[in-house]
């Protein structure tokens, strides 16, 4: 292991990460538990929807031809035969010259092919005056117009939102095949790292990254398992990593902040498996390791939470998205940049910004600071090919 | 109850909804369970962070004055006294003319006030040649520079993201006071409504809205309780609504699609409590009811899932945000509009759009359709004061 890492471009690192994305299984879950889960297969409609010719307005079911030329001055006059009741089969048929009252959602009576809205109709005892002509099919949803039996309601790879759950329920689908939540194992390393509830002796830092990584994993639809804190000793890391790769779909090793520790992680990964990338042209996040032990991807993260998070969003998120078969969930806004962002050419720079009065204000600060994480709303990504952005530039902010 | 609703502007409806937002209690949860929860109080640092003067680079702890004028040509020469080990108190002090190797994160030895980076230093046996001058404080994080003891790490109202969890762990905070998840009760009404797993007889529709509402509630940090489907009979709705307002922080009554049913809901709410709004200048979503029974807000939603969802995002989301004391979580993008969107003046129109090649493509279709919900990515909001947007306009899309 050399002092200066052999860095690869971000795009290459992402490709490597995606190339080792784990395959996760499928399970069937009830609709109530399916929010934000990813469909593993296309889901088709079991029958036609709405399943019957349905009025989409409150009005009168008519034969469209009877209303030809109807106007305020010269309304069509139709005999009112009665009411279609909600949720009931229609009680009769519409013959020429007659109509039935029909509520929104009512079943079209045989013979009717359109609905005249109440707003343009007038009732005179047993007669209805229709003041506007309606075309065949007007204000009617045909029995298979929403989904025909067998049509795909939602495709594989769809991350289910609340509306999707409603539409699936409408189609009579109450359980769905979804991708299993990948299990992400998290190992913290570093002689200086102590548990989050420990007091801080000089030189010690509390274990922030295991909480950060677990939160990230859950936000990305994974389960998380924290394996605790390991001293800088390959003899301790080795068996724990073996256990973690056995149990998990992905293992994150959060590095100590010193080079020695990072090299220990890379050493152990290389010994048990393969190190594919050691160093990315990414700032922060350069000392990242991408490797594999058996078929399980193992990612070595920088020790600083701010750097670790950039690697999670840049490298790990696309890997998890490929495993889930669904796009990376992220939020972006385009805003004006409030101040210059300088950046070194040759590395992709993720610069933290705060959104203030609709502008992106860069949040600068020493690299070791944590307070810049909670004072920022997202990052502006400066591509490796650029030397930064200038005040007034229109930039895209990837929101936390 | 009149046939034509007395509609109020959207802004007024939102104000009414916010004015009846429930007060939810506070609970203490562990950090691992705190993701996306809302802080109920400011959280302060128990001690200084990092807690000791810390190097932020790998290098040599020096007295800055010793490096004054140092350059490639004329390096400063310092006696190397040894190594600061990670996680350990420094083994000695730095006197003028000497230095200690220090790793990133190491404790600054007494007497040192800056760190010369390894990249600009050279080791010759027991001597270190420093090729660049460093200023006092350079590459050092002071003991309270990140957070001073007692400083607010994260404020009340913060919805905790993964980084926040990491920063809180760093500060030694392992449990946090958060707002309790509001409990949202959901009642479906309508003679025509059958359970989602029932076959569809003519005229029947499956209960989509209770799944939609439950998904929405969970997405907005609430628990959801579905109370089942009620026929159009005030004698059945009345006791169920009383039970729901007793048990829940908010009750949603999903209306049948016909006017009769909506009026039944308004009637029962008015009888047991107060109807504050019945009709909003919103499309879709006009026949919305905002009321209160006891201190519990009760919202009557339109029967169609597409309309119901617009009311949830427009009226219910701000109410829940106020209850949580945190902003509405939503995603917006500004894009070019690919086709004209006509709209009637006087009502706020939420027009479904699909994002395609970076443009917003309006998804039109008959009002009863469900497939437009799953084929769209969000909505463009046309304010009541406008008659629509034109192709090429720069519009904001609120993403689902």
UniProtKB/TrEMBL annotation, chains A, B:
Pathway annotation from the record: Cofactor biosynthesis; molybdopterin biosynthesis
Keywords: Molybdenum cofactor biosynthesis
Cross-referenced PANTHER family: GEPHYRIN (PTHR10192:SF5), MOLYBDOPTERIN BIOSYNTHESIS PROTEIN (PTHR10192)
InterPro entries membership: MoaB/Mog-like_dom_sf, MoaB/Mog_dom, MoeA-like, MoeA_C_domain_IV, MoeA_C_domain_IV_sf, MoeA_linker/N, MoeA_linker/N_sf
NCBIfam families documented for this protein: Glp_gephyrin, molyb_syn
Biological process according to GO: Mo-molybdopterin cofactor biosynthetic process
Superkingdom classification of source: Archaea
Matching CDD domains: MoeA (cd00887)
Name listed for the protein in its UniProt record: Molybdopterin molybdenumtransferase MoeA
A GO MF term: molybdopterin molybdotransferase activity
MoaB/Mog domain sequence ranges: 185-322
A GO cellular component annotation in the UniProt record: cytoplasm
